[in-house]
UniProtKB/TrEMBL annotation:
InterPro entries: Catalase, Catalase_3, Catalase_AS, Catalase_clade1/3, Catalase_core, Catalase_haem_BS, Catalase_immune_responsive, Catalase_sf. The lineage of its organism: Bacteria, Pseudomonadati, Pseudomonadota, Alphaproteobacteria, Rhodospirillales. It comes from Azospirillum picis. PANTHER family: CATALASE (PTHR11465:SF9). Belongs to the catalase family. Residues 1-21 are annotated as: Disordered. It catalyses: 2 H2O2 = O2 + 2 H2O. Residues 1-20 have a biased composition (Polar residues). This is Catalase. The keyword Oxidoreductase applies. Its cofactor is heme. SMART domains: Catalase (SM01060). Its EC number is 1.11.1.6. It is an enzyme of class 1 (oxidoreductase).
Amino acid sequence: MSTLTTSFGQPVPDNQNSLSAGPRGPLLLQDFHLIEKLAHFNRERIPERVVHAKGAGAYGSFRVTRDVTAWTKAAFLSGVGKETPVFLRFSTVGGEKGSADADRDPRGFAVKFYTEEGNYDLVGNNTPVFFLRDPLKFPDFIHTQKRNPATNLKDPVAMWDFFSLSPETMHQVTILFSDRGTPRGYRHMDGFSSHTFSWINAADERFWVKYHFKTRQGIQNLTAEQAVAMAGIDPDHATRDLHAAIEDGDFPAWTVSVQIMPEADAETYHLNPFDLTKVWPHGDYPLVEIGELVLNRNPENFFAETEQAAFSPASVVPGISFSPDKMLQGRLFAYADAHRYRLGGNYAQIPVNTPQGCPVHNYQRDGAMRVDGNGGGRPNYEPNSFGGPAQTGIPSEPPLRITGDAAHYDHRAGNDDYAQAGALFRLIGAEAQDRLMDNIAGSLIKTPLFIQERQVRHFMAADPAYGAGVAKRLGLTVAQAAE
Ligand code: HEM
């Protein structure tokens, strides 16, 4: 057995009894071990993620199964059979760190690829779309998912007030209240980039891509009743399920595909391909299978690895880049800013965030909790004459043509918020439609009549049967709903 020490390595003589003046006496300030133990304990908590606070992570690997070099020069995708280590964190969105895994919510699906050209983060969800198309609305939207400022209770009125005033939410609302809003566990759901990203090949041609991770465990969901029961029986059921499966050697896997759109198509495609509230119909851009992802190792320490993991959509590698999607552009700022606040300016040095496939050389120095030697005596400025690291000089991507006058353009003008929501409603079949409308009505009924009526009008616009079904469950007449 090893000897218990202080943080500075001195042996601790007694970890049961504090140093006191006499057996009943007050304690002495010179008991450094006691002071250190209490002081460190006081600092054990860091801010939880403002969204996606509850999560579970695992390590694994990604393997390329198809030659994709015609579309991207990314080194980790450069050959069939090539493997890249990954860390994946699943999460719920709105709840706090101790909230139930079974809550109705989208699920986060954040993958960190430790590539030889640096870390590539794909920070997606289990849904192919999102509620919004302008990042300016994200804090407002999240406030409606969190707690009421007066009561500290979850607030269906705020949620439906916002949804009914924001028709671009319709598609994602339809997914959220469907069976897919309560997955059976993290292993039994798909993942999506949701956003459009770009791939760039060696000839400097750009393609727009969307990623799809299809679960090989099969989609399984809880019914609304099962989810409510599960939240009481085992609030950590999805975390437990993932951990147990990996411990048992039953490694979960996903088939990875992309939809690929040549750059020029974006100008003429009938949808805005950078609108995060829309999918690209597979008939237009079919799935191209490119790889498989397997999770095969649990973290050894939840806080050190899963809690301190920092994912950012801005973390891309050569051959992969962004798109004009306004939501994505907003996210490119938000994540690293959150990490600096939540983990500190040197968060990249936390082992789970450190590149594994390549070294890091730059001129960043100092700051709180600098633990990597801080560049030693090497030059801390550039250019220099002493062999410091230099830029590649290779443009990371071809120029992107951008046109337009700067203005606050109405992101709702001329957008069809209903067609894809209606198509999804018609696709899922009668029984799933019934559950969807039951789930919606069960929540919407808790709001004032004017919000119910306003929201039902959106469902009507998506599909008359959708609107009528929700109206009926709310006890509204079709005339009321149609007004
Ligand atoms: C986490 C902001 C939209 C997926 C976060 C965090 C912030 C944030 C601040 C916490 C980061 C941290 O503390 O480490 C935003 C903003 C958005 C947005 C401003 C829109 C403008 C989205 C969308 C998706 C998404 C559209 C999915 C397609 C995630 C995931 C996490 C996360 C998966 C958790 C990452 C992890 O496991 O650590 N988001 N988000 N977010 N977000 Fe977003």
